[in-house]
Write a structure and sequence with these properties.
Chain lengths: 322, 443
């Protein structure tokens, strides 16, 4: 927000136009009214308020009730929904933390791969070679597909008994069918693999944009100092990419923590709810069992946790800078 | 000078936000109408009306219903019907929401096991008063079907059809293994003998889905009833599927996999793919989904029979599509009369619906020569006297699909202790049942 559009600093304006007679209301056309900025912001605020602010606050309200949208009576239960989530014997607490574990595991397994592989890819695609544009498009292509398409596609490929991948493996002499979608650890291999294949193109493009902003003079200087390729990468590329890395890390952590479609469509939470992620469990409790108050409470806990994680990201990468 | 500061504005926005929330909270409170249905004649002859009809007939059954509606409108030119089909899962979320916000359709079709839930939510109307007008008589229905629309001493729905889980069998596979394709097994000994024979011919005879929620759960349901068990106690507040009968049922399902009669890690689509490619002999499933699906495969030689008796008695899971009248803020006598006219017509002409797969709920139609002409449907009809429905407990469908079915699936994937698996699920289900009883009891 710029200072000149804010009220409370009229001195600048007066100083700039000394010859002007004392202002009358309606002022000169180029002098913004105090509420002008808010009028400009209004369209966004309206949408933000309707789709973010009101749902967020009403969700908090909901989480304090035993809330079923379709029933007229929604008794106030105070913090009971939250207390239930922290009562070790309570069933819902076990299920919720089990689903948080699944989400956490997915983040831990997928984020490093989604940070490293796209970076390597971006470095390759930043070289000059024939067909570079083609390859950039190819690696980005899966990202434009919707999660339902991805789910259906990989369902056909990974199916244990009738899938294409096991079919080819059998022809290569693998006698035992691999339960890609029904047993650990294969479920995690499948989910992480599919997600990496699907979304690495996006991270690559962000890295690529960052790489193109690195000043060539820095590499020249490093070469003059006798730095080899690896040293150039560590001492020039990485520090220059730090803001981009922070962005990619934050976005990837949030995206992975919100994973829903892949496990919903591919594994349906199997085996033993091992791959039922937090969002999936929240949807089941809130939108299938209609225990909306409880689901809202879980959503708030998840959101709080993600805010903390994102804040830590920022702190961690900022400290290194100083 | 203006005193409009950032702080004031933020405060104003905050207040507006809270007011919005309050308004939203007040606004979305269900407006449960107290309107009563007017008395209406059996045949509507007033000015033209267009009725709104919602259902979940998004598969091959949708076109069949639309054809019937066209036929009805030809006979009753003053009643047009706008049919809106959306996937069942969405239907059960949107239908109550539409009713509570005053945008209800005139009538709808829903599953029998969702009727009590929607009655407790007060989004559908008791239909006792229009029963005679529509022309429903107790003698025309099986007791289990007749009773399936009655909740808290009132009738809420009119049964259209029944879709009992049945034994679909691949005749060519049976024949190639040296079994009689005209005599599918009817009891446990014969069934296991057939599976053994198929196994020695290198065929897994009964691909048992461990992942598809419908396939897994409903097979267990039928077996639980066959072994003499019940899912829930009479009050609907405690789960009893972990009893001896439940353990026997699940143990037998695991045996199918242990003996190699079913591959491991089967999904619902695997089983039917294998069946269609002559790699699977038996499928347990409902006629609504399977008759038209299998019928569309060229060169597939199949037939269907009632489920074999594995336990101590015969029993088969069944569902039923039932018509309900949506609650309106204010009932229009003309529209309601038109609804009643349509319901009376379609229930009397439900033979037309049988081509979609399910068999008519009305017994005189079930015994009619027209049904005998539909080979598969008439074979399904042979087993209807043994059908079982889920009990009429609000919220029961969610207890089944979110707790029992996943537990069965897990036990079939891991082949772990069936008793332990069912015990955990029993605790979870009883907890949710009690919460539901309290929640819906207040309504």
């Amino acid at each position: 927000m710029t200072a000149t559009t804010l009220p409370g600093r009229p001195a600048d304006d007066v100083a700039r136009r000394p010859a002007e007679p004392p202002r009358r209301s309606p002022g000169p056309p180029h002098r913004p009214r105090p509420w002008t900025p808010y009028v400009f912001l209004a369209p966004f605020l309206l949408i933000f308020g309707t789709f973010v602010l009101v749902p967020a606050v009403s969700g908090l309200w909901m989480s304090l009730h035993n809330w079923d949208f379709f029933l007229p009576d929604r008794p106030f239960v105070g913090l009971q929904n939250y207390i239930d989530l922290f009562t070790p014997d309570a069933l819902v607490a076990q299920q919720f933390w089990e689903s948080m574990r699944a989400t956490g595991l997915f983040v831990v397994l997928s984020v490093p791969l989604l940070m490293a592989i796209p970076l390597g890819l971006a470095l390759l695609l930043n070289q000059r070679f024939r067909g570079r544009t083609f390859f950039r498009a190819v690696f980005f292509a899966p990202y434009v597909l919707g999660v339902s398409v991805i789910g259906l596609l990989w369902q056909y490929l990974l199916n244990g008994n009738t899938g294409l991948i096991n079919g080819y493996l059998a022809e290569l002499g693998v006698t035992e069918a691999v339960p890609w979608l029904t047993a650990t650890p294969w479920v995690w291999v499948s989910l992480v693999g599919v997600t990496v294949w699907w979304t690495m193109g996006f991270n690559s493009v962000v890295y690529l944009a960052g790489l193109q902003n690195v000043d060539d003079a820095l590499y020249d200087a490093a070469k003059v100092d006798g730095a080899n390729r690896w040293q150039q990468f560590v001492h020039v590329t990485i520090p220059q990419l730090r803001p981009v890395l922070l962005f990619v890390l934050t976005m990837t952590v949030l995206a992975s923590a919100n994973m829903f479609g892949q496990s919903y469509l591919l594994t349906a939470g199997n085996p033993s709810n091992e791959t039922r992620t937090a969002i999936m469990f929240i949807a089941e409790v809130g939108l299938e069992q209609f225990r909306m108050g409880l689901a809202a409470a879980m959503s708030y806990l998840l959101a709080l946790l993600l805010i903390v994680v994102s804040a830590l990201n920022f702190l961690f990468l900022r400290q290194k800078e100083s | 000078m203006s005193t409009l500061t950032r702080r004031t504005v933020l405060r104003a926005i905050g207040a507006a936000g809270l007011a919005g929330v309050a308004a939203a909270v007040a606004g979305c409170a269900p407006t449960i109408g107290t309107a009563r249905m007017p008395r209406v004649p059996a045949a509507y002859d007033g000015p033209p009306v267009t009725l709104k009809f919602w259902n979940g007939l998004t598969g091959g059954d949708g076109p069949v219903m639309r054809t019937l509606i066209e036929e009805f409108t030809r006979e009753h030119p003053n009643i047009a019907i706008d049919m809106y089909a959306l996937p069942w899962g969405d239907f059960y979320q949107k239908f109550p929401a539409a009713v509570t916000s005053g945008l209800a359709p005139d009538f709808a079709l829903m599953h029998n096991f969702q009727v009590a839930t929607n009655a407790a939510r007060r989004v559908i109307m008791p239909v006792d008063e229009i029963l005679d007008t529509v022309g429903l008589a107790e003698a025309d229905y099986l007791p289990v079907v007749w009773g399936s629309g009655v909740y808290r001493d009132q009738r809420w729905s009119l049964p259209l059809d029944m879709w009992p889980d049945s034994l679909f069998y691949n005749r060519r596979v049976l024949e190639q293994a040296g079994l009689d394709p005209d005599a599918p097994p009817t009891d446990r000994a014969a069934y296991e003998h057939a599976l053994d024979t198929l196994a020695s011919a290198g065929i897994s005879g009964h691909w048992l889905p461990a992942v598809d929620p419908q396939g897994v759960g409903r097979g267990f349901d039928s077996l639980l009833w066959q072994f003499g068990g019940e899912h829930y106690d009479d009050a609907g507040t405690a789960a009893t599927f972990g009893s001896r009968a439940g353990v026997d049922a699940l143990t037998w399902q695991q045996t199918l996999i242990r003996e190699g009669w079913s591959p491991r890690n089967v999904s619902g689509s695997d089983a039917s793919t294998a069946f269609k490619n002559d790699q699977n002999a038996f499928l347990w499933g409902g006629p609504g989904a399977l008759i038209n699906d299998l019928g569309s495969v060229d060169g597939l030689d199949w037939d269907v029979a009632p489920l074999p008796q594995i336990g101590e008695r015969r029993a088969a899971f069944s569902g039923s599509h039932q018509f309900v009248v949506a609650r309106q803020p204010r009932f229009d006598a003309d529209r309601l009369a038109a609804v009643v006219t349509f319901l009376g017509w379609i229930l009397a002409n439900s033979i037309g619906w049988a081509t979609a797969g399910p068999v008519p709920a009305r017994l005189p139609i079930l015994d009619s020569p027209e049904l005998a002409e539909l080979t598969a449907q008439s074979h399904v009809a042979e087993g209807v006297e043994h059908i079982r429905f889920y009990p009429l407990v609000p919220g029961i469908a969610e207890v089944q699909t979110t707790i029992l079915y996943p537990a069965i699936g897990d036990a079939l994937l891991s082949l772990g202790d069936p008793g332990a698996a069912l015990e955990t699920a029993t605790t979870q289900a009883s907890f949710l049942l009690q919460e539901n009883a309290e929640k819906y009891g207040r309504a």
